[in-house]
Specification:
Helix content is about 15%, strand content about 40%. It contains 2 helices and 8 strands; from the N terminus they run ααββββββββ.
Length: about 140
């Protein structure tokens, strides 16, 4: 009896692991999606609200809509990456008796202690889309 229950649970887990829609349901809300629908040439780019067993609930231009699973040919998502913004700060300090040549004044007087600081911010690109779901074609029964 215990063995049959264990085998039934194992079978359910194996079937769930093979279902690619399971990965879609595990995506976090707010994930950027690219949805390829049946008979539509251009994909829809939207943000995920949540996924159910039968459909995908998305936010498109601040409006919520639902896309049935049967209408989706392929689904790509943009993985959440680190910060796209990189900040770099450089500081330079000169003491009283050691001014750099570009800071020496004409006439021989030393300018005294000084410091300078520069900050640069670089914007990187977003990570590329990755395919998470592809509808399997139906095989006709013989």
């Amino acid at each position: 009896m215990t063995r049959s229950i264990l085998l039934a649970c194992l079978a359910i887990l194996l079937v769930a692991a093979d279902d690619p829609w399971t990965k879609v349901r595990e995506l976090k809300s707010g994930t950027e999606l690219r949805i390829y629908k049946k008979a539509v040439t251009q994909p829809v780019v939207a943000k995920l609200d949540h996924a159910t067993e039968e459909s995908l609930v998305i936010v498109l231009k601040n409006e919520q809509s639902s896309v049935p699973k049967e209408e989706i040919d392929r689904l790509d998502y943009r993985p959440a990456g680190g910060s796209r913004m990189t900040k770099q700060t450089t500081s330079k300090t000169n003491t009283l008796g050691n001014p750099s040549p570009d800071q020496q004044r004409v006439g021989g007087s030393n300018p005294g202690p000084s410091s300078s600081q520069s900050t640069s911010i670089t914007l990187g690109s977003k990570p590329a889309f990755e395919t998470i779901y592809r509808r399997t074609p139906l095989v006709p029964k013989n």
